[in-house]
From TrEMBL:
This is MsrB domain-containing protein. InterPro entries: At4g08330-like, Mss4-like_sf. Coiled coil: none annotated. Gene3D superfamilies: Peptide methionine sulfoxide reductase. The lineage of its organism: Eukaryota, Viridiplantae, Streptophyta, Embryophyta, Tracheophyta. Pfam families: At4g08330.
Length: 125
């Protein structure tokens, strides 16, 4: 049974494949509450917009803030914000990491496309 994912604002089909969806209990560093995550999407259905923010966070006088880099996912039809792209997916290589302690931060990771459930209309076919 396949699911059809469409935008709640304009109703356009987003062409998301359920085969590329991560299981709901799959652990991610950026969380997965209230969202659906995919390993691949159809880039013709979305606009990707880079976001680079510096959020103020003052612990000491010399500490200015937290830099957050991420990519917004917007509907190509109505420009509605659907979610974000994170880089905390599975490692791109099968390397055991340094000293066989697991993959480190320097090993490139697959992108994860995280959509907010409130921005998706999910119907079963």
């Amino acid at each position: 049974m396949a699911s059809v994912y469409s935008c709640t604002e304009c109703g356009s089909n987003l062409n998301l494949n359920s085969a590329h969806a991560y299981p709901p209990d799959f652990y991610f560093e950026a969380g997965n509450k209230g969202s659906v995550s995919f390993s691949a999407v159809d880039p013709t259905k979305f606009k990707f917009e880079k976001e680079d923010k510096l959020r103020p966070f003052f612990e000491t006088v010399n500490y200015w803030g937290i830099q957050r880099k991420r990519t917004k996912i917007k509907c190509n039809t109505c420009d509605c914000l659907l979610g974000y792209v994170y880089d905390d997916g599975p490692p791109l290589t099968n390397s055991p990491g340094q000293f066989h302690m697991g993959p480190s931060q320097v090993i490139p990771r697959a992108p994860r496309y995280r959509f907010k459930t409130k921005t998706l209309r999910i119907t079963s076919t």
